[in-house]
Amino acid sequence: MPNPQFTKPWHGIPRENIEWNPTIIEDACIGCGTCVTGCSRLVYRFDFERKKPVVIDPLNCMVGCTTCANTCPAQAIVFPPLESILALEGLPEVRHAVEDDLLNRRDILVSPLSIPHPDRIVSLSVSGIEPVSPEVIRVTLTPVEAGECFCEFSAGQYIELWQPGSSHLSRSYSIANAPHGDGSITLHIRRVESGRFTAWAFNEMKVGDQLQARGPLGSFTMRSAPDTPLLFIAGGTGLAPVLALLEQQVTFSPERDMRLVWGMKHAADFYALDTLHLLASRAPNLKVVLAAEDLTSFEGPTSKHLDWIEGNVLDAMEEDNALSILRDLYIAGPPAMLREIARDLDRRGVSRERVHMDSFGV
Ligand SMILES: Cc1cc2nc3c(=O)[nH]c(=O)nc-3n(C[C@H](O)[C@H](O)[C@H](O)COP(=O)(O)OP(=O)(O)OC[C@H]3O[C@@H](n4cnc5c(N)ncnc54)[C@H](O)[C@@H]3O)c2cc1C
Ligand code: SF4
Ligand code: SF4
Predict the structure, then answer these.
(1) What is the share, in percent, of the chain residues with pLDDT greater than 90?
(2) Is position 115 within any domain?
(3) Distance 181 CA to ligand 1 centre (A)
(4) Where is the FAD-binding FR-type domain (predicted)?
(5) pTM for this model (two decimals)
(6) Do 236 and 202 belong to one domain?
(7) For residue 136, what is the enclosing H or E element?
(8) Cβ(22) – ligand 2 distance below 6 Å
């Protein structure tokens, strides 16, 4: 019998709607019984006549668990691909159920080893909201109290932001500029379907709103020796921390040999081209390549400093031959893009020590 204790909905999804249970490869099984006795959820029983395990209560199996397969000495147990579970975790309702559960059971789940967070919490006022593409807004935040700012942050870092009065956790956004004297910072926020924070940011946030921010956070900062050539790679709003690093370099080392490859799905989504043009015009050895898989209705950049290709960032890297000399790499964007690039760099034998990555989470 399925045990109600084990067959509760998984982060809001009815357990019977999730295909996750072991399958025994009978021919490979040596009948040792490790899986039967090792599973505390009584998924298995043992057929003493045949000396084989039998999956009796598959719904008792814990979603995502593969312990019995890992400990089977004959490797006779298989599961559906883990990607099926990772895809469920990408659903807004699952992500939100996890977040709500964390907050509802905060008293029980809080770590007894919690230490006061060393970073600063600062009140910032929304001083500008500018749609820069159909899917991205550029938001400027200014300290509420002059001098109460993240003035000492390093280019490439990010902050955590709280939506005023929200019941969900904070969200992270990269600072898209190098430090400025007045303490103001800009963020590039991309619209996310069914997103909690971004729904508020796109539909309700207005100039004058005050937000709590924590930071500066993260270690995606310049680590390279001053004479090392650099390759920046950005996917989508991964441009934000890369812009900050570029601004820093153009200010302090304008002669440096630098490449930026920026990828988007649709060419119409590129934004901040005026800023890139300005930076490139001040840095004679900076070359910018825009890579878009869909170039429909793209008229091409209006500047000699910007080049573009049809394809993704990996195609652009092939064409540009930018890796033919040794560069340090600074890569920011969605995790799927980062994984693909990491595989490509491994294949090319690029040392991981040269590679710095900033993953935008989920
Ligand atoms: C270090 C760091 C820096 C970041 N910097 C930026 C930045 O500069 N600009 C920016 O726009 N975002 C950035 N992000 C992502 C950002 O923190 C939020 O995750 C994003 O804005 C979605 O929040 P939400 O509350 O609207 O969505 P949620 O309600 O948290 O999620 C809704 C749905 O969208 C999916 N989802 C959530 N985030 C993303 C995402 N980034 N890409 C694709 N799907 C997603 C979830 O899986 C879920 O299905 C950064 C993340 C990290 C960890
Ligand atoms: S994966 Fe875990 S819960 Fe599922 S049958 Fe194996 S040991 Fe039991
Ligand atoms: S642990 Fe593996 S070999 Fe042992 S009974 Fe289970 S399936 Fe068969």
Answers:
(1) 76
(2) no
(3) 29
(4) 119-223
(5) 0.86
(6) no
(7) strand 136-143
(8) yes
